[in-house]
Amino acid sequence: MGRGGVTRLWAAAGAAVVSGVLAASPDVARAALTDDLCLPSGNATLASYPSAGDLQQAAELAESRLARRGAADPFADIAPSLELRGSGSERPSPLAIAEYCSAAGELMRVSAQGSQLQAQTYLLGAFQAASRANLQGPASVAAYRLGLVSLSGAPATGTRGGGRRASRGPSEAAREVVQQGGDNPCDALMRTSFVVNSSLSLSVASLGCAAAQAKAAGDYRTAALAELRLTRLRLSVADTNAATAASFRTEALADSRRGIDAALRVSEPELRAELLGRLISASLDASGATTGATTDVGRLIPEIRRVQTPAAQAYAAALEARMVAAAGDTAAARQMMDQALLLEAQRSLPARLPEFHLLLSEFDPGNREAHVLAAYEALEAIRPLLPRFDPLTEETAFSLYMRRVFQGAVDVQLAGATDAGAAIRVKSAQQILEAYRQAELQSVFGSECIPARDPLKPEALRPGEVLLYPILLPDRLEMLYVAGGQAGAEFRRLPPNRSVNRQDVARLVEAAVVSLSGGEDDSWRAASRQLYDILIKPIEAELTPGSLLAVVPDGALRSLPFSVLIDSQNRYLVEKTRVTIAPALAYSQAGGIQAQNQQLVAASLEMEVRVPAGRFEKLDGTGAEARLAAVTDGNRIQRSWVIENFSKADLVSALTREQVDVLHLATHASFNGRSDRAFIVANGEVILLSELRQILSANRTRGGELDLLILSACETAVGDDEASMGLAGAAVQAGARSAIASLWPVSDAGTAELMKSFYGRYREGRSKSEALREAQLALIAQGGDLANPNIWAAFTLLGAWR
């Protein structure tokens, strides 16, 4: 977060909401009525109000269109129906306000043109209006939707500026939730200031409140769904945070039991069976599938079996197999899993087939490899058919059906890479990893934005270029690497490191990044030193003078600035080698266009902007930064355009005039939260990255991709694997061969100095990776404030490095 942190952003956003900022945006035309009427404090007084009937009619129309919206963005179709004018002085009923604000918040939540911050504002306003009037049904719907907003990450982040962001990571957020465990979640949502807490705190409170309110209102579907999402959220935290794992698992078990009670009261048989199956499975995960736990839920299997569909019957058989295995009868469990597989295969889309093969591998450990690889083959068969989001819970298909299968397949291939066929297994593991990375990117950004490509081949690497795949597994760290310049170069497997695991590495990354981005202490050094020993020392012999290290990071490593890792002589990695990050080999061509022949567009924003995503502060150094991007040795380069306080129309005009090779954007940006809302801030509006890609693709005179995208004002989330893909995905989604971007906000002076140094070297003929490294080394050599790694280490190169 930029200057002022989360609290200041919320306060500014609240002021922006009160002033009706949505009406100021030409792309998000909204009436000030919604902003005032849905303010969480509920204290706004309007000169005139629509009638309660008008509000409810607008809400009903919006909700019906949202329910049948399909895959298309519903904003343009629905937003006009919510634009109402006042007709009287009487304030509408709390029910009408709650329903109207809930519909408006839901539109903002699901639409790519909507705003996460505005969605939070409207939904919190809807919840508070309903709660004050004891309207439990509308309150539960608003709270559930609010929980889904907060599950997708911070509502606005990545603002440019010279301030330090709050030193906060996922471990602290998890501890905060444990400390708040006894609080009434609905009481927390009545305090507007609670929204400044972490997304995790808000998610837990919103979903817990939604479940309680829905059950009180007799809405057992919403109650069961809220408990299911809450259970899975707690299990996810438990898997990644050892310090709080026991507390989160205990609470997850309690949530799942409450969810089961609610699901049993759902009237629709098929929905009841599906919810029961998912909640029972989550309950078994939370309890560790102990015999006592399985006895409690075993009585529920007949409820699922009553539904005579292959899906219900298969799910019932699989759950019963888990319970039988927990009781010690693995032979019977294997028979039941065979039955579950047979039944699941009868479905038109057997989405759980991979999951069932994985379960069978647990019951038949002697044949684990065969079962896990069968799971992978089943996944590859159905992967193109899976929807991006689950229609019931809105979880990604990747998280529900793919991640564990990919991880398992890589695990067994590497675990068996000890015999004469080790090279074949390593190659197979690397190919699965590449498919894993591509599937993950497509899940976050959508396959239409991230089309599949052929990956970079090892033979394309030059001497001195080293490619590294760190793989974070639950019980160890695995690393594959390949060094270029050798005939028949192939990936090699380093000895597995069993002294650390996924949680250990994530904890070290968090310690390093939170301290570095805060810039206020040196506690990052110890973590940086340990990470060097874990990740770099095993291959440091390959990092000769002039070498390049390209890393395809996994999980928490995506938010790590590798260049700042420290060796035993207290030397930074950047002092040894060039460093670049590859989101996947398919999106990492090695080379690009020579700088001397490039057309550059540099766009800057220096004014304060208020848009639906929030208030973005006035910037001081961005205009100078854009101008220096277009200057070499004091002279303007021939093929360059500089646009100050740019609008979308300005950018469209510049980018479609002729082929552009370098696009430098010196403005605020946000890549966290829902990936399809990643945007840059222009004069009075935002430009989605998906829109930027379309602009760049239009009216090209030479064809080809943008060679270099520079984003000097963005931030990568720490501890959120999906959100941390935003930075890497930004270059891919915008259609760029490579990008230079910041992992956290950096001072204007530091940014300008680094960019000046980078461009000077780049235009002398250095490669992108050479120019960035030399610019970083120049800041280190200067000493003083600019040598602080808070400044130079924030910038990272993604994609093509030559």
Which key phrases capture this entry?
802 residues, five-stranded mixed β-sheet, 50% helix, globular, disordered N terminus
Please tell me about this protein's structure:
By secondary structure, the protein is α/β, with parallel strands linked by helices. The chain is built from 30 helices and 18 strands. Strands 11-6-12-16-17-18 form a 6-stranded mixed sheet, with helices on both faces. A hairpin with a 2-residue loop joins strand 9 and strand 10. The longest helix has 24 residues. The chain is globular. The chain starts with a helix and ends with a strand. The N terminus is likely disordered.
Short account of what is shown:
The protein is about 50% helix and about 10% strand.
What class do helices, strands and sheet pairing give?
A: alpha/beta
Distance between the termini: 32 Å
Q: Which segments are poorly predicted (pLDDT under 50) over 5 or more consecutive residues?
A: 1-31, 162-166
Strand order of the largest sheet: 11-6-12-16-17-18
Approximate helicity band: 40-55%
Sheet with the most strands, sense and barrel status: 6 strands, mixed
Proportion of strand residues: 5-15%
By DSSP, the count of extended strands is 18
What is the gyration radius calculated from CA atoms?
27 Å
Figure out the total of helices: 30
Q: What does the overall shape look like?
A: globular
Give average pLDDT, whole number. Answer: 85
